[in-house]
Structure formats: C-alpha cells, structure tokens
Amino acid sequence: MNVDPSMLQRLGRLEFLAREAVEGFITGLHKSPFHGFSVEFAEHRLYNPGESTRHIDWKLYGRSDKLFVKRYEEETNLRSQLVLDCSGSMWYPSEVKPDGPELNKLKFAIHSCAALLELFRRQRDAVGLSVFADELESHIPAKSSGAHMRMIYHELEQLLDEVGEKRKGTSTVAALHQIAEASPRRSLVVVFSDFLDRGGDIDEFMAALQHLRHNKHEVVLFHVLEYATEMNFNFMDRPTIFEDLETGEELRLHPAEVREAYQSRMAQLRKELSVRCAQYRIDWVDVDIGLGVFPVLSVYLVKRAKMLGARV
C-alpha cells in the first residue's frame, strides 16, 4: 500500500489503515450493519383499522383480545463498547512465519477494533474501549467526538507498540462483570478474545455475559484463534517444547500423542460456546486469524446487515 506521509502525520498509521480499508470492505452494504440497534420500545397504543398490521403486539392480543400497536423511540446514536483481551495468550503466535497468519491474535484484534472504530465514526456513533487481561486495565466510556475517537486510536496504537513480553493471565469473567457495572446505558458490546482462561468455568463465563444482557446490552463475541495450530494442532511430529505465554511454564511432548485429545477438547469448547451463546441471544463469531482482518469482518458485517434487513 502506498502511504501518504502527510496523512500518516495527521492520523497515525493505524487510523490511516483503518480509513483506507473501510472504504473497500463496507462498499456494497446498502444499510449500516448496525442500523436499527438503537430503536427502543416506548409504549403501546390502540390499533386503528386500516393501518399496517406490522407492529401489532400479537402476544398482548392473545392476553387481552384487543389490538395494540407497539410504538418505538429512536435514539440519535448507537453506543458501542469495544472490549479487547490483551493477555499473554493473545500474543500467539509469537513469531509470524511465511505460511502462517500475517498478525498474531492481539494485533488481529487491534486492527479489527480500528476498522470498527472507523465504521462507527462514519456513522457518528458513540464508541468506548475496554482493555483487560488478569484485570480490567482501562475502561474508556463511549463518546462520539473527534478528539475522543483519536484518543482511542492512540490507545490501540500504544498496544501495538508493546513488546509482548509482559506475561499476563486472563480473567474474562471479572472484566465482563466490571464492564457491565461501568456501562449503565444500553450499548453494543463487541468482545475480541481467545477465551482461553486458565481453568475457566463455562457457567461463570455465561453468567458474566448474562450480566451484560440483563443490562440490555447487545453482545457480539469474536472468538479469535489461529486455526492451524490452536484448533488442528498442526505441529511437526517430533518432540516439541510448548511454552505457556501467560505463566512461562514449559511442557515437552510429542504432538502426535496428544493431537486427537486436544482437537476433541477444543471442538467441545467451541460447540458449547456456540450453543450457550445462541440460547442467550449472543452473537458468537468463530474467527481464524489466518483468513485476515477484512475478510473476517466483511463476512460478518454482510451477514449482520442481511439479518437486520430481515427483521425490519
């Protein structure tokens, strides 16, 4: 990509790349993929004969035997909170190889957040940023001003510049509860994480997500993994030393001896997350970082736009 030095000086590399990319992958979406989220139910009124039956509350009709229409109140802006896991495991793979993904999981998530931030900026929506590892490290509430957007870009660029040698654990559950408490207004909460908490309890994790849903937030989970190795365990069949990026612990084993059990456990985790999220109306997006940031986001945004179009 040819980079305009004057634009870089004014915007910063990450913001420049986001603006350039959004021009391309949003093209073709006839509606915003987040349009309609901020439409709130306000009250019922009696149905007037001859008008559209589209907004009749049929459940209320079943209880009262009277026709009532739902009335809605549109907020001026969508509020969204980008949530980013920066724990040690998100720095995987620590080395980018020619046949591997272009970015590690954390950099993939940061570039994805930057692209969504640019999309929300164009829609004049309010955006915030939360960053967590073994604790909630920062929480920037949603605002829509230009200065606020630039501050979030700066925070993301600082994360990109970190060396990745800080070994941090993961406490997704505690962070999500804190974010729910710190976000009183209904928002779209978009989480980027590998959800690889040590000894993580799926029930506790779902309880944290329910906390967000109870506060009327819409939740989207981007489950960020490097498929070739983290899902399929495609390591060379020879004795290998594996290092825990969060604790530094090392384990020597032969990949062929554990591959089947590992694949089975990861498939079980993905299935359970998918099923449980569907039950709670949480959008779970299975992500292979090897596909690249913009192909992943484009597929999701097109799918979401179609879903919302079908609901209108």
Describe this structure as you would to a colleague.
- The protein is an alpha/beta fold.
- The protein folds into 2 domains: 39-74, no CATH class; 79-311, von Willebrand factor, type A domain (Rossmann fold), CATH 3.40.50.
- It is built from 10 helices and 10 strands.
- The chain has helices spanning 5-11, 13-25, 58-64, 105-122, 146-161, 172-182, 202-214, 227-231, 255-279, 293-311, and strands at 39-46, 68-74, 79-85, 126-132, 136-143, 188-193, 218-225, 240-243, 250-253, 283-288.
- A 6-stranded mixed beta sheet has the order 5-4-3-6-7-10, with helices on both faces. A two-stranded antiparallel sheet has the order 1-2. A two-stranded antiparallel sheet has the order 8-9.
- The longest helix is centred in the C-terminal third of the chain and has 25 residues, at 255-279.
- The radius of gyration is 22 Å and the shape is globular.
- The model is unreliable at 1-11 (pLDDT under 50).
Notable characteristics:
43% helix, alpha/beta, Rossmann fold, 312 residues
Provide a concise account of the structure shown.
By secondary structure, this protein is of the alpha/beta class.
